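FW: tagging you since you asked about this chain on Friday. Here's the raw sequence from the shared folder, copied in full. Didn't touch anything.
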Amino acid sequence: MTIGDGASPPKLLSDGRNSELASSDGLGGTEPNPGPGPRYIYYRLYAQDGPIKSNNPIYSNNAFISRVMPRSVAPPHTAASLKKHLCKVEGFSAAPESCALYLSLSEKVPVDGAARLSFRGDLGPGSSSLDPLALVVGSQESGKRSPASNKTGALDQWVGDQVQTRFVHYRVYDESGEVTSKTSFDKDDTSLGRINILSVSPPHTVASLKACIAKAEGMTDHDLQTFEDDMGEIIMKDDDTITIITDVYPGILQDAPIAIVFGSKKATRVDRAFTKRIQIIYPSGTWASPDPKWHSMKDKEILQTDGALRSELYTYKCYMAINSEGKKALVAECEVLSARHVGV
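HL: got it, structure written out here
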């Protein structure tokens, strides 16, 4: 889609940059536009429910795209070595095997870690910001991340939005009828919402689309059904593939949105092994843990555990436990009443 502002469109390089601007290396410096030979590897980051901002943005108006130089990746250039490097520069401590790398946004299957990748010339994976690689990290890993470093210097503007901003349109309901969408863009039709197609995490299935919409609507804790249109005659199955990086996909038209029906809250799933109850003893009231591996303290809160004591980094013993919000983390033995003393 071209923005009709009356100005001549900028000359775009294959990576979506304005050819008249200097380029950033994604780590705070600038380099001349790359010539023949090794080039940049462009990528986007995703959790399973949507995009993640890069710690090393290269554009002032799009924080979700970044790039690295091929020479920064340790030989041999395999998918595994690239994943290790991307996790490092983006502040993820996750093991590469816990992440999935897709050679383009439209790929349905992640590339095998042992696969050799070529980054020479203008072709190949990640050669353009308009067709980047996608690194998908697990939900637990996405919350464990080193902070971004402070960078200096001006960034380019990504003008790719002028040629490929497209949306999935959807109408939102609960069990009693239509409700206002949090992504509503039409004041006369507030149940109609939309998300950018680039917000949906690979692989592009109904499940990943539902996860992205549920996050956008703040309803991740609710069950939902998805229908191909607002007539509701065809239910979309979670494992169905959707080709949203094309000119034909469900919800491409504002007048033909898919339908999202939110049901009741999801039942809290309790690990079958975590059947023993313990109670936190913290007379001060509450304490916020700075380490996501450990539970915060809330006096008299009931947790469920498997009853097995363990040692984790520290000398005192602890339990792995699930709190009232469903979070699984560690709690020190000295801070709880044991299962036999909890009369609940």
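FW: The mean pLDDT is 80.
HL: agreed, and The chain is about 10% helix and 25% strand.
FW: great, closing this out.
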